[in-house]
Structures are given as structure tokens and as C-alpha cells.
Write a structure and sequence with these properties.
Helix content: 55-70%
Radius of gyration: 16 Å
Strand order of the largest sheet: 1-2
Low-confidence stretches: none
Order of helices and strands: EHHEHHH
Strand content: under 5%
Shape: globular
Mean pLDDT: 90
Distance between the termini: 44 Å
Largest sheet: 2 strands, antiparallel
Length: 154
């Protein structure tokens, strides 16, 4: 058995590097204040993010049965894609657009892969709380990331 908090730590590691080495070439946002839908998505994203990162600390990782093995395999694949996206970003001089560009045919992979990872983690932990938090995070994070990728912003 491993502590469930390991799930959160593994998904946060690249973000710690991102805080030290921020993106280059981020476009200036001249649309402030943003519209109501954008603000609502930001709230969903933050509520979901905090909950999804805290909840695993209240569980233990136990791999029992084929369902757990499948969930763990999906988590590993999603985390591998997530790390590959971050590696591309850091190896290519932290260009802002790399945070959103497709990878292996996956659109906005740095938004999609952590959601898949956390949904699989909710199955592994048998946590409806984590699943709900991840859905909230996903709705907000995927919307905002898509808008950023498309240059819509609001």
C-alpha cells in the first residue's frame, strides 16, 4: 500500500518547474475584465483543482483486482503523456504555445492528460469525491485551455 497523496505529487512535479521557469512569449491579454463564462470556468477549475489534489491524501493506493490494474495502467499512460508534453515544453525553450499544441494527436495534452490521470485515480481509489472534483476541474481547465489554444480568451 502506498499513500494516495503520491497521486497528487506526481501530477504536480512539472508544475513546480513551470513556476520557476515560466513560459516565454505569452501574449498580452487586453480583454480584462473577462466575461462571466470565463470567470465561472476559472472558479470551477480552481475548486476542482484544490479538491482533486487534496482528496487523494485521504486514501491509500491498493491494487486489488483487474479493475485496479486497468486504472493504474491508464494512470501510467496519462502521466507518461503529461510528462512528455512537459518535456517538449522545457526542451523547446518554454515557448508558450507548446503548453497547448497537440501531442501524439491529443489536443491540449497538458490539460487532457491530467484529467484522464485523475479520473483513473478516482477509479483506483474508488473515490466518488475525487471523480466529482476531477469533473469540475476538467470542465474549467479544458475550457480555459481550449480558449487559450484558439486565442479566444473569453
Amino acid at each position: 500500500m502506498l499513500p494516495g497523496g503520491l497521486i497528487s505529487i506526481l501530477i504536480l512535479l512539472p508544475n513546480l518547474l513551470w513556476m520557476v521557469f515560466p513560459p516565454r512569449g505569452k501574449p498580452e491579454d487586453d480583454r480584462d475584465p473577462r466575461g462571466g463564462l470565463h470567470k465561472a470556468m476559472e472558479v470551477l477549475e480552481w475548486v476542482g483543482r484544490i479538491a482533486a489534489l487534496v482528496i487523494p491524501f485521504f486514501y491509500r493506493i491498493e491494487v486489488q483486482g483487474s479493475w485496479s490494474v486497468v486504472a493504474l495502467a491508464v494512470m501510467a499512460l496519462a502521466l507518461l503523456i503529461y510528462y512528455a508534453g512537459w518535456a517538449r515544453y522545457f526542451l523547446r525553450k518554454r515557448r508558450y504555445g507548446l503548453l497547448f499544441e497537440p501531442l501524439l494527436g491529443i489536443p491540449i495534452p497538458l490539460a487532457v492528460s491530467p484529467i484522464v490521470y485523475l479520473l483513473a485515480a478516482s477509479a483506483l481509489l474508488a473515490s466518488w469525491y475525487l471523480a466529482l472534483a476531477t469533473v469540475l476541474l476538467g470542465v474549467g481547465h479544458l475550457s480555459i485551455s481550449y480558449w487559450e489554444f484558439r486565442g479566444m480568451g473569453s
